Amino acid sequence: MKRYLDDRVQADLAQKMVFLTGPRQVGKTTLSRQLLERQGGQYLNYDVLADRALVRKQLWNPQAPLLVLDEIHKMAGWKAWLKGVYDGKAASQQLLVTGSARLDTFRQSGESLAGRFFGVRLHPLSVREWCAQTGAAPDAALTHLLERGGFPEPCLAPDKEQAERWRRQYFDGLVRNDVLEFSRIQELNAIRLFAQLLRSRVGSPLSLASIARDLGVSPVTLKKYLDILEALYIVFVVRPWHDNIARATLQTPKVYFYDTGLVEGDDGLRFENLVATALLKQVQWQHDVQGKEAGLHYIRTKDGAEVDFALSDKNQLTHLVECKLSDDKPHRALQRFALEKAPVQAVQLVRHARHSYTLGAVQIKVAHEFLNDLLA
């Protein structure tokens, strides 16, 4: 399966080394191996003992056209080590570094890698990408992703039962194995319970103090747990938009899952989570590939007015996005903020709308058409 970043990674490799990150099993290894099949080279995974020995002694083929190093951020002093590898390699050799945790999470001392790499983040499949891969109509693609989530294996599974088996093993494995690299063993059950609780709190302002009381831990500890889950690409945080005018804006974040299939809730929550993943994918594509200062936020004020998502560019709001399953009446808060923050584009995404149209300052959009028109 060719992914949306395939050509970009190949083009970037001709200029610098590339850091390819993203959730575990999102397709990084597949993308890497497809590049290797086209141009030849060598793949080494630091989690594999035999490969680890080759990595530490730098015993790979120096003439390999492409060298792929996976999970090397787990090696002590990896930044200084990688700088030496990059500066000393043959000019013709391309270097791809991949990892399922954010490479900047492991804050170790060493030489700066600034100016030596491009960073790109691989996301789960979106409506646009599923349509491009399978030829499905956008509405059918949206239905499929709401049921299966956007990770390649459950998406391509022969039936929903197989997809759910994958998801159960995936979630348990992430918490059991990957979290241990960030925390003490005795914290594992608490982090697992916290992650489980988040599955039913998608889209709501997150009160760490309230959850901390329920779990019998401190809010500071929960903040650390949330940072771990973010670093492992299990969840992502959407923070509120604020500017000098909206001083009443609350600062509580909202949390969403990279895998929509992990959301526990009704169709509306799953739809909102899927839109969140699609908008994040768009924003990070703009940041990584186009160099834009794009951001994903939400708006909520103390008087209870809320809009699900807000997109920004260079600290200026560009879009407001509200998610609805079937209500095509303009959302009151969306109308309010569309006027207050003009000329922002206000969009109400309706899952079951028959057609798109404009009412005042609000655009009512058929959800699958809007999602299919996103960049990634």
Task: Identify the notable features of this structure and list them briefly.
about 375 residues, five-stranded parallel sheet, eight-stranded mixed sheet, single chain, alpha/beta, Rossmann fold, 13 strands, 2 domains, 14 helices
Report the biggest beta sheet as strand number plus sense, adding barrel if it closes: 8 strands, mixed
Number of domains: 2
Low-confidence stretches: 244-250
Number of helices: 14
Q: Write down the secondary-structure element order.
A: HEHEHEHEEHHHHHHHEEHEEEHEEEH
- Measured as a percent range, the helix fraction is 40-55%
Distance between the termini: 15 Å
**Radius of gyration, taken over Cα atoms and rounded to an integer in Å:** 22 Å
Question: In terms of structural class, how would the helical and strand content be classed?
Answer: alpha/beta
Shape annotation: globular
The spatial strand order of the largest sheet comes to 7-6-8-9-10-11-13-12
Number of strands: 13
Give the averaged pLDDT, no decimals.
91
- Give the amount of beta strand, in percent: 15-25%
Can you lay out the helices and strands and say which pair or pack?
Blueprint: H1 6-13, E1 17-21, H2 28-39, E2 42-45, H3 49-57, E3 66-70, H4 78-88, E4 94-99, E5 117-121, H5 127-134, H6 138-148, H7 152-156, H8 160-178, H9 188-198, H10 208-215, H11 219-231, E6 235-240, E7 254-257, H12 267-288, E8 294-300, E9 306-313, E10 316-324, H13 332-340, E11 345-350, E12 357-359, E13 362-366, H14 367-372
Parallel strand pairs: 1-4, 1-5, 2-3, 3-4, 6-8, 10-11, 11-13
Antiparallel strand pairs: 6-7, 8-9, 9-10, 12-13
Helix pairs in contact: 5-6, 10-11
